[in-house]
């Protein structure tokens, strides 16, 4: 009888060891004691577990993401934003030195034509003033440590970067309201037309030498360059607002860390585009196009400016009787 | 100089959270409510392959937090410890996004999602303030490194799962253990 038990016991032992050997051959199957290589593989894949900590993301020991994001920011995006601001200013100053500005051929007529409502002017500045401050503070936050900090004392740098962050956060709100209103309310005047192609072919008629000299391409309410700026602003304004919301209100949207890093990159890319366009836009309005600034001060433009730069629009409002002079 | 590192031996960690408590207690002066610099995470909890690991700042030699900080508030000591200057911290949270280990934490401050000054493990090495000054104690907690001592979490680990010290020394201790255990591919790699 005792012999029988021995045999059965041996058979069971052999059976189980065979099962164990079969499992041992499978690398992925978890043993009661996982090998360090298995644990490491799971952790690197972002495994989460149980922890007593209540802090954000603490259930996950390791979050993996593409580390090239870091170099992208320091080596490409930061210098690019510097170039988009200071580089564009230098290019435009040189361009104006060489080319000269776009003068009104017949001078100022003194008759002002209604172009923008008071509301339009106010939403422009609602977006524009925060936009300028966001560019300067955003530049400090992205590129400041590489380009400004080496020249500044510790205390001054700390104050500047702290101020930049606070201003950047607060100015985001009016900027987004301004962006949304401008994009929605102005889109109908910004639809591309066939004559916009011709506008680009002669660079808008702003070149004062060579074969382009003295050209005046057709333009409606907005010319092709303004339309390009408008749509770039609409698109990248959307990206910069959406990514900015993720970064500004993490408690509301609870983005993952990787998504936040992606938002950070998209935010910088959009900022570079908007900054470069903004510099061009400001130069065109204030220096390049004589009489252009008046539009965003009073909402009226000089009649000669309207016929020179927006001939199709002027003809249209004259024909349909909506032309309104300033009293 | 030494290059200071933490290493947690998952074969020895028993999820007692002694390291968490030791850290909390040692650095209590600097820790705001809800912040814990070290945590123990257990993966596959209650299942085959269960393993616990104690995690805090790993004091990376190519620290992502350092690369991403807009205020450039991080610095590396001559012992290879990654520290930060809370006076320069602007609470943007980028280091939290960049850190693979979730080490940076932010006390809640003000309205919306705005963050306070970042806090993280200092390897019990204080901060940029004068060693053992009141300012250092209030902002960063203890400074055991200046006293020639290792971080409290590792010193108090009952099973010596959590090791802290020069990378060479720590890894040779671990290698020795692995060799003694005799299993193939049993080491961290």
TrEMBL record, chain A:
<keyword id="KW-0732">Signal</keyword>
<dbReference type="GO" id="GO:0009061">
    <property type="term" value="P:anaerobic respiration"/>
</dbReference>
<keyword id="KW-0349">Heme</keyword>
<dbReference type="GO" id="GO:0036397">
    <property type="term" value="F:formate dehydrogenase (quinone) activity"/>
</dbReference>
<keyword id="KW-1003">Cell membrane</keyword>
<keyword id="KW-0560">Oxidoreductase</keyword>
<keyword id="KW-0813">Transport</keyword>
<keyword id="KW-0812">Transmembrane</keyword>
<feature type="transmembrane region" description="Helical">
    <location>
        <begin position="167"/>
        <end position="187"/>
    </location>
</feature>
<dbReference type="GO" id="GO:0009326">
    <property type="term" value="C:formate dehydrogenase complex"/>
</dbReference>
<keyword id="KW-0479">Metal-binding</keyword>
<dbReference type="InterPro" id="IPR011577">
    <property type="entry name" value="Cyt_b561_bac/Ni-Hgenase"/>
</dbReference>
<feature type="transmembrane region" description="Helical">
    <location>
        <begin position="76"/>
        <end position="96"/>
    </location>
</feature>
<dbReference type="GO" id="GO:0046872">
    <property type="term" value="F:metal ion binding"/>
</dbReference>
<dbReference type="GO" id="GO:0005886">
    <property type="term" value="C:plasma membrane"/>
</dbReference>
<keyword id="KW-0249">Electron transport</keyword>
<dbReference type="InterPro" id="IPR016174">
    <property type="entry name" value="Di-haem_cyt_TM"/>
</dbReference>
<dbReference type="GO" id="GO:0008863">
    <property type="term" value="F:formate dehydrogenase (NAD+) activity"/>
</dbReference>
<keyword id="KW-0472">Membrane</keyword>
<comment type="similarity">
    <text>Belongs to the formate dehydrogenase gamma subunit family.</text>
</comment>
<feature type="transmembrane region" description="Helical">
    <location>
        <begin position="125"/>
        <end position="147"/>
    </location>
</feature>
<dbReference type="Pfam" id="PF01292">
    <property type="entry name" value="Ni_hydr_CYTB"/>
</dbReference>
TrEMBL record, chain B:
<keyword id="KW-0479">Metal-binding</keyword>
<dbReference type="InterPro" id="IPR050954">
    <property type="entry name" value="ET_IronSulfur_Cluster-Binding"/>
</dbReference>
<protein>
    <submittedName>
        <fullName>Formate dehydrogenase FDH3 subunit beta</fullName>
    </submittedName>
</protein>
<dbReference type="InterPro" id="IPR017900">
    <property type="entry name" value="4Fe4S_Fe_S_CS"/>
</dbReference>
<keyword id="KW-0408">Iron</keyword>
<dbReference type="GO" id="GO:0051539">
    <property type="term" value="F:4 iron, 4 sulfur cluster binding"/>
</dbReference>
<feature type="domain" description="4Fe-4S ferredoxin-type">
    <location>
        <begin position="49"/>
        <end position="79"/>
    </location>
</feature>
<keyword id="KW-0411">Iron-sulfur</keyword>
<feature type="domain" description="4Fe-4S ferredoxin-type">
    <location>
        <begin position="80"/>
        <end position="109"/>
    </location>
</feature>
<keyword id="KW-0004">4Fe-4S</keyword>
<dbReference type="InterPro" id="IPR017896">
    <property type="entry name" value="4Fe4S_Fe-S-bd"/>
</dbReference>
<feature type="domain" description="4Fe-4S ferredoxin-type">
    <location>
        <begin position="4"/>
        <end position="34"/>
    </location>
</feature>
<dbReference type="Pfam" id="PF13247">
    <property type="entry name" value="Fer4_11"/>
</dbReference>
<dbReference type="GO" id="GO:0046872">
    <property type="term" value="F:metal ion binding"/>
</dbReference>
